[in-house]
Structure prediction request, 371 residues.
Amino acid sequence: MMPTIQEPVDFDMRGGSPSYNLWLASQDVPVHSGYYVQDVRTLERSWWSHRGCPAAVLNLEGHKGLEQIHVLEIPAGQSIPPFRLALEEIVYVVEGQGLAAVWAEGYPKINFEWQKHSYFRIPTNYFCQLSNARGDHPALTLHVNLLPLALQTNRNPDYFFKNPFVDLSELYTDDGRGFYSAEARAVQRGSRMSWHANFFPDLTVWDKLEAYGRAGRLAYGGGIWFPNSAFSTSLMVLPSRRYRTAHRHAAGTAIVGIQEASGFVVMWPEGGEYVVAPWQEGAVFVPPSHWYHMHLNSGAVENRQLRIRAPRAGANPDADQRRSIPFAQLDPWIRTKFEEELAKNGLTSLMPEEAYTNPNFEWDEEWLKDD
Ligand SMILES: [Fe+2]
Prediction:
C-alpha cells in the first residue's frame, strides 16, 4: 500500500527527498545506505514487488534526494515484468547477458541484445522488459533514475508510475531502427570529442579516450553521452600505481567500478574525518556534496570507472576557490597510505617526486598514454 502523502513531511534537505523517503519506506526491498558499496554484485537482494524480481536499492549519502540507484536480478532463463516510469532510466549491465524489449503501448517492440558491461538508456515512459539469455546464471543490471529529485517537484508517486504520456518521437523516429544502434556519433564539445548513442555494447573495450594532464588530473577519459538525457556520463581510466588529486563539487555523481581493479578512494568534508572506501569491480561510491574525494590506483592494472552525473542546477563550481588541492598540499598521510597499499601488492609508486614539491606540476600526456 502506498504511504499517504497528505501528512506534513520534513523538508530538511539534509535528509534528501522527503516524498521519496516516504515512498521508499513503503517498499519491500533491502536499502543500502552509507558512503559507498564495495561490490554491488554481492549486495543483499530480496524480492521487490514493485519490479517483480529480486533487487537492492542504494540510498547513499552522496545521491540522497537526487538519484535512485538500484540493482535488479533477472533470474536464470527468465524475463522480469515489463516496467515503465515517467522518467528516463540509465542501465549498466553488471553481470550476465540477455535481451531488452523497449516499446510504447500499441507500438512495435524494439529489441536488442546486451551483455556484461553494456550501457543503455530507456527513454521516459517507454515499457522495458529485460530477459536473461542464460539458463545457468542470474543477470544483474544497475539502474539510475531521478525519482528522488522528481518527487521533490511532484509528491505523488503515481504521477511517475501511472502516467500514460509517451513522446513517440524519442524511439520511433526512423521506425526505431536507429535508436539502439551500437554506432556512436562523434560530437565536438569545445576542445574535446564526445560520443553519442543510446547503447554502448561494452564499456570495457571503449577506446575513444583522451588524456588530460592538467595540474593534478592524472588520468584519461572520454565523454559518452545519451542524447536527450538529463544525465551526463563519462568514462575515467586511472593508470596503475598512480592517483588523482582531491577535488570537490556538487552531489550526485555516481562512480561505478566496471573492470577488475584494486585501489581505494579517500573522501572527507573540509576539516573532517577521512572515509576510505576499497575500490574494485562492482564498487559504487558517490561523493557527498562538496566533500573532497580522490581515487588511488594501488593495483597492477589500470582502473576503469563509469561516472553517471545528475543535473547540477544552480551549482556554481567557479565560486569554490579550493575546488582541488595540489598534490604538494595534500595531507602526507595519503601518500603514505598509498605506498603501504602498493607494498601489499608487491608494487611501488609511479608518482613523480616533482608532484609533491611543485604545486603547478602537470603530467606529460604522452607518458600517460604509454601505460
Ligand atoms: Fe569528482
Remarks:
- The helical segments are 18-25, 147-150, 158-161, 169-172, 332-344, 365-370.
